Amino acid sequence: MAAIYSLFIINKSGGLIFYKDYGSAGRMDTNDSLRLASLWHSMHAISQQLSPTIGCTGIELLEADTFDLHCFQSLTGTKFFVVCEPGIQHMEALLKHIYELYTDYVLKNPFYEMEMPIRCELFELNLSQAIRKDRIGLVGR
Amino acid sequence: MIGVGKVKQYTNVLDKPLSKGKQEVSLSAFAFLFSELVQYNQTQVDNIAELERRLEDAGYGVGVRVLELLCHRDKGNRRETRLLGILSFVHSTVWKVLFGKVADSLEKGTEHEDEYMISEKELLVNRFISIPKDMGTFNCGAFVAGIVRGVLDSAGFPATVSAHFVPMEGQQRPRTTILIKFAEEVLTREARLG
């Protein structure tokens, strides 16, 4: 059972800096994932402009028939989003947790260059632990 | 500390007891500072060995000062003069002040008489650091190795100290071993002392 299909992290200019696939449904090649990431970036920006509410920060949840897309944007403009099974509740907490891992294991790593693709062993290690924990249902409940 | 609680007035500044210092600092603040240290040094060098050396030199200065301070604070202005004494001083007292815990293990090298190893499952400076594949066996623990060298050197135990990753069975992450190789004169002196 895979509740989460995939995870994306995009930098403030819309470039995909991290992509991870979980489960078999909807596997994408690199080009598709890059395209989807920048597409989401633009849609997110447009939604901020179109929204009738003042001070709107963009789409947080997109519900479709076959998947839900949860998005979390940090104050610096880095966006984290997961594509998951429809109707899953606690994704915000998981996204915040992933953001925390990003600040710890990516931003405090002297060998990481800002806005560049993330290749940090410790980040991936802790991320897969968080996802595994989430499947058992410990995070954010 | 100044401004905390009721401070006794001393007429002579030298009569004042030495402050215990603040025992803890923010790990995040340290991690960012250390990260900057590594990044700065990276811009100053063109190979990894050079970077390792510069980090070690940065640590050396810390080690020299730490020895001075701890001898005064904890040992009543005395320092260890024997090999095992200074090693356990590094392993417990120094480690505790710098990292808030005693080092995981202190061992004698099996192959050489003059080698000792301090091992740490997760070295504090390496907590958030992933070494890129193209940097090979580089270890930011070189900074800690420098601290150890600084302490030993100024205590009169010249040694070469280096940091290595050692893979552990059943563990995803390798541990860091600080390898200490003492100079010949240290061992001859130690033998003479009996």
Automatic annotation (TrEMBL), chain A:
GO terms for cellular component: endoplasmic reticulum; Golgi apparatus; TRAPP complex. SMART domains: Sybindin. This is Trafficking protein particle complex subunit. GO terms for biological process: endoplasmic reticulum to Golgi vesicle-mediated transport. Keywords: Endoplasmic reticulum, ER-Golgi transport, Golgi apparatus, Transport. It is found in: Endoplasmic reticulum; Golgi apparatus, cis-Golgi network; Golgi apparatus. SUPFAM superfamilies: SNARE-like. CDD domains: TRAPPC4_synbindin (cd14856). The keyword Metal-binding does not apply. Belongs to the TRAPP small subunits family. TRAPPC4 subfamily. Part of the multisubunit transport protein particle (TRAPP) complex. InterPro entries: Longin-like_dom_sf, TRAPPC.
UniProtKB/TrEMBL annotation, chain B:
Keywords: Endoplasmic reticulum, ER-Golgi transport, Golgi apparatus, Transport. It is found in: Endoplasmic reticulum; Golgi apparatus, cis-Golgi network. CDD domains: TRAPPC5_Trs31 (cd14943). Gene3D superfamilies: Trafficking protein particle complex subunit 3. Pfam families: TRAPP (PF04051). InterPro entries: NO_sig/Golgi_transp_ligand-bd, TRAPP-I_su5, TRAPP_component. One of its GO terms (biological process) is endoplasmic reticulum to Golgi vesicle-mediated transport. One of its GO terms (cellular component) is endoplasmic reticulum. Part of the multisubunit TRAPP (transport protein particle) complex. Belongs to the TRAPP small subunits family. BET3 subfamily. PANTHER family: 41-2 PROTEIN ANTIGEN-RELATED, TRAFFICKING PROTEIN PARTICLE COMPLEX SUBUNIT 5. This is Trafficking protein particle complex subunit. It comes from Amborella trichopoda.
